[in-house]
Design goal:
The chain is an alpha+beta fold and 238 residues long. It is built from five helices and nine strands, in the order H-H-H-H-E-E-E-E-E-E-E-E-H-E.
């Protein structure tokens, strides 16, 4: 009986070792918003924004998908975190390109249209339409503009005048159980904080103003409780 028990024990240990080895050898599952474990293959389909996307990417503008077009579109999608990254010239890709164009046009004068009030001293401005944020002291630009990732459809970042009321450098969401480094809350559960995603990654946050790590850290160092925040515009696609 003892020999049989030993044999069963050896077999169990071998099975466990093989199971672990199989897990180690299997391709790692990439957890992202795209929901795909593997990179998307290049599509042959012509998208509804084919000509606009071709023009943006300085491709021959014929409105027809080619293998070279797909590779160029796919490269753009992967650079900016657009999912799915199949090379399809769809609305999300074209919307991202338009947002990037608007962000680049903002230059160092993001408040040229005077939509963010500058008569309150230090203020963090959030333009949902251009997906940009910056900090001003009166008429002087103190930081930015930087790209942000605001609330998705149904979880829109609320507009209007706010104030930072709570800061927590290593906050963890009690609702979504995710890390929110450099969190600065300005409206209920909505806050500035860093994320490990590209700012153009669809569909958006659950209402917070997502930022790149270095930008969120700069906001943390420049702002304090009681500072003003002004949110305006509307996120494309919401």
């Amino acid at each position: 009986m003892r020999v049989a028990g030993n044999i069963r024990g050896v077999r169990a240990r071998r099975a466990l070792a093989l199971s672990v080895a199989g897990l180690m050898a299997a391709p790692a599952l990439v957890l992202g918003t795209g929901g795909s474990a593997q990179a998307a293959s290049c599509t042959t389909s012509t998208g509804p924004y084919q000509k606009q996307v071709e023009k943006y990417l300085h491709r021959p503008v014929d409105g027809k998908q080619s293998a070279a077009d797909c590779k160029a579109i796919q490269s753009f999608q992967r650079t900016y975190g657009v999912t799915p990254d199949s090379g399809y010239a769809g609305p999300v890709t074209w919307r991202t390109m338009k947002t990037l164009t608007a962000q680049k046009a903002a230059g160092k004068n993001p408040n040229k249209d005077k939509k963010c009030p500058t008569n309150k001293g230090r203020i963090a401005c959030v333009d949902l339409t251009r997906q940009l944020s910056w900090i001003q002291d009166g008429a002087k630009l103190k930081f930015g503009p930087v790209p942000i990732r605001s609330g998705r459809n149904g979880y829109e970042t609320r507009t209007g005048s706010k104030k930072i009321y709570m800061r927590h450098i290593n906050h963890v969401s009690s609702i979504y159980h995710v890390s929110m480094p450099y969190a600065q809350f300005f409206d209920g559960g909505q806050a500035f904080h860093s994320v490990g995603l590209k700012m153009w990654n669809p569909p958006g946050s659950h209402g917070c103003v997502n930022m790149r790590g270095a930008d969120a850290k700069s906001y943390w160092n420049l702002l304090k409780n009681g500072d003003d925040v002004y949110v305006y515009g509307r996120k494309p696609g919401t």
